[in-house]
Design goal:
Length: 296
């Protein structure tokens, strides 16, 4: 089982480098400009100060920027960390609602994802803006302002069955949450329905990430502790992500519980068959609170 982190604080890049040194595999950076640091600034700094950890967004909000701008953002980070980047896109519940706006509807969201995918693949695409449609592509690539040579996996975030099906239809993976997104079996069933609609089977390396909330506790501390003792580790905000490739036999997750503070505490997961790659992302408030134990 591999581990990753979620973060979005520009002056705590050491949190990412410490995680990398401890063997964590992914760093997911959130995209909520009204409450957190700019995701591209965080990723650029992390790219310069890391060597192996995979870097990406968790998740980008289409309503905040045009599709070509989003594609340029991750392609620019890919120039700094070639082959280590990924991108996830969602309709934007937190990012948009903090602006008093609704998340993007699935129809425009589909078009947005397809535009980003086409540009990241180096294709010419038909792009519509302000009632006009033009053929566009990344230009001056010989000067290497961006990196399109190393593929950037594109994951689709979704809690409902339609968005999860869209991930199976046009994405390289699915990002969801437990329990809001349903069981892992239900997520995969929805993704497979979308893939079938597109006339394809889910790729063997289709990436599925399920985020839940957890709280860190000191060894021996009661699971329902409110963390008020001086030695208690700070509680985590979302997220704990279990992600895997090779999804022919999905994992089953046990029920989670809530502590007195309202945080959800994962009680673990049980697998029918070990997937080919699993990662777990945890978020903590300080670098010193990153757990050093690896799961078996």
């Amino acid at each position: 089982m591999d581990f990753g982190i979620m973060t979005a604080k520009v002056d705590e890049i050491g949190y990412i480098t410490r995680a990398e040194n401890l063997g964590y595999t992914h760093a997911w950076v959130t995209d909520s400009p009204m409450i957190r640091s700019n995701c591209w600034a965080v990723l650029a700094l992390a790219a310069h100060q890391t060597r192996t950890i995979r870097l990406g967004t968790g998740v980008n909000v289409p309503g905040l920027r045009l599709a070509p701008v989003a594609a340029n953002g991750i392609a620019t980070i890919n120039r700094l960390a070639p082959g280590r980047c990924f991108m996830s896109l969602g309709t934007g519940h937190t990012g948009m609602r903090l602006l008093g706006q609704r998340p993007m509807r699935l129809g425009p969201f589909r078009e947005y994802v397809q535009a980003v995918r086409g540009l990241l693949s180096g294709e010419d695409i038909e792009y519509s803006l302000n009632g006009e449609t033009h053929r566009i592509r990344f230009q001056m690539r010989e000067h290497r302002f961006i990196d399109l040579e190393h593929p950037v996996p594109l994951y689709v975030a979704g809690f409902g069955p339609k968005a999860q099906a869209l991930a199976g239809e046009i994405g390289d993976g699915l990002v969801s949450g437990l329990p809001r997104g349903g069981t892992v079996h239900e997520m995969l069933a929805n993704a497979r329905r979308g893939a079938a609609k597109a006339g394809r089977a889910l790729p063997a390396d289709f990436h599925v990430a399920a985020m839940v909330t957890l709280a860190l506790r000191q060894p021996g501390e009661a699971p329902d502790s409110n963390g008020s003792s001086p030695s208690a580790a700070p509680p985590c905000s979302p997220a704990f992500t279990i992600s895997w490739r090779g999804i022919s036999r999905p994992a089953r997750t046990r029920r989670s519980t809530r502590g007195r503070s309202g945080s959800r505490i994962s009680t673990g997961c049980r697998k029918r068959r070990r997937p080919s790659a699993i990662s777990v992302c945890t978020a903590a408030t300080t670098a010193s609170s990153i757990p050093t134990r690896r799961a078996s």
